[in-house]
């Protein structure tokens, strides 16, 4: 058996290459920051060639660090920032416009035109009409390059999310493909029949000849011949779906939450899509051979970002880590609630017009109580998402698997367990996004025999169990809901 699986994790602000061994342990990692461009207010772009160069750099660096050659690599997995849109010239292999990043709002005016089709789009894709997704970004690019529509219809232009772009460059232009999880985030993919949808493509006037072929998450995508013709790409998935798999949420009802700048919670809902009436997204989690798994997804816009705000703008703490130490300086917030809706509220409210609020301040409120209230605000928002998921899916859950930077804050994790009244499981390897595609790749290559083998090697460094009484939870959450209601009423 070869030593490692190479996972390429191309994110919004950095690209990483990680070598995992058979036990799922992170052995070596290399990282490069990538630059986001902000040409206009609300626009977020990146140089697609720079993204590709960053992949070359980190792969070479991680091989040097490990002192190995590509012949020690079993296979490659690719995970990526989702929805980010790249269009390139088929003949030259060069981008015709900057990559339009998932966060960018530059195509919102296009989405406004399709508001009357929101039920149709939701029923086919499980998504809400939003510039967040790829369809309107493709339309924007075609409208803003010379003869864009004509070139697309003539088969001269190719579209891809970041995974497609990396696959295309790694295969030296031989493979134009994506996986079901990334395809399901484009707003052009029918999650019921797992095909590009003719009606949606016609609606956005996007020629199907631009679109990549769609394959399973665990699949032989072909040789990464840019590096070595004998090493194949065998695992591909969008970052959040990959993290769900990396957390071994293989059973219906299992869910994970990633605590980053924002928070992304996904729940495995089994082999049939379930459309939400409360603002959750329905997405394809993964497909392996004939087995497809779907997920419900909810988003918290401001998670760990509130700790950065307390550190950088309020200067109440010197480091993010210090937030836990300061918050432990008091036993409770004494009725203080911080609603960190700096850019609006996500699931289940979807209210873009509200801004952050603080309630319950008294003359005796201390810095410690304020910092603690900020941390609790993250956990309360995640409870909002979790409760809606549990209600709509009708699936009992016993635990929440967590990852992301803020999981190092033990006070936050304990409070999350208390307020949800379930166990919080923190895995040994926190790089679950990269680990997920390593698992996908290994399953295809035979590096792993089956899902059971992966479950057996997966372990946890900590499990947080609820300690708070249910009545206290009820009272505290009641106060949070009052704070949310007041925040939504008071808009400037």
Overview of this protein structure:
- By secondary structure, the protein is of the alpha+beta class.
- It is 34% helix and 24% strand.
- The chain contains 16 helices and 23 strands.
- The protein has helices at residues 48-66, 108-113, 118-125, 134-143, 148-153, 162-170, 180-183, 198-203, 239-246, 305-312, 322-327, 367-393, 410-420, 432-445, 451-457, 470-489, and strands at 4-10, 14-20, 26-33, 45-46, 73-80, 86-89, 99-100, 157-160, 177-179, 189-190, 195-196, 213-215, 218-223, 232-238, 255-259, 263-270, 281-288, 291-300, 337-339, 357-359, 399-403, 423-427, 460-464.
- The strands form 7 sheets. It has a 7-stranded mixed β-sheet with strand order 17-18-16-15-21-22-23, with helices on both faces. Strands 3-2-1-5-14-13 form a 6-stranded mixed β-sheet. Strands 4-7 form a two-stranded antiparallel ribbon.
- Helix 9 packs across helix 14 (432-445) and helix 12 crosses helix 13.
